[in-house]
Design a protein that fits this description.
Rossmann fold; 6-stranded mixed sheet; two-stranded antiparallel ribbon; 6 helices
Length: 167
């Protein structure tokens, strides 16, 4: 299992008790590192360097990825390459869970850390002040995951839609 959000002891405990090995990489926090800033690159980010140094898993494939709402807050030049990198490390028939804000969320929608509290409960904790970068509509989400086998959309609470993706 790969968790792309901030480290959560609750999530690690939940999945290790189920017998899974958990990898964690806080992609959004990593993307804020000034070392990846570049005035000469589109979007002001050195995408090539970012992915040379992050989300690198040698000889590791994942059965599941928790993407949370990272694409909504991540700088535009990193979103599509991140989804492509995940596809390359996700096993066939592996699952990805992502949350996307709806048009009603607004640019000041708070960033949350997600902590699994049980089989059907998440606890939300206010995270750092990241600004919502965009709102993906369903067509954008389908295009983002065009290399994947299937997508299922679920409308959740608080102006968020859950997307379950199968590789």
């Amino acid at each position: 299992m790969l968790d792309l959000g901030p480290t959560s002891p609750a999530n690690i405990t939940h999945f290790t008790e189920l017998g899974h090995r958990v990898y964690n990489e806080d992609v959004l926090l990593l993307s804020q590192n000034p070392e990846y800033r570049s005035n000469s690159e589109p979007g002001g980010i050195d995408v090539e360097r970012f992915f040379k140094e992050n989300l690198v898993f040698r000889n590791v494939k994942f059965d599941a990825v928790l993407c949370w709402d990272i694409p909504d807050y991540l700088a535009e030049p990193l979103v599509k390459p991140m989804i492509e990198r995940i596809a390359s490390v996700l096993n066939p028939k592996g699952y990805l869970l992502a949350f996307f804000h709806t048009k009603d969320a607004g640019p000041d929608a708070p960033y949350y850390r997600y902590h699994i509290q049980g089989a059907d409960t998440l606890r939300l904790q206010h995270g750092p002040q990241f600004r919502l970068q965009r709102i993906f509509n369903n067509r954008h989400i389908e295009n983002l995951f065009h290399d994947y086998a299937s997508l299922k959309f679920f409308l959740a609470r608080d102006n968020v839609r859950e997307v379950l993706v199968v590789r």
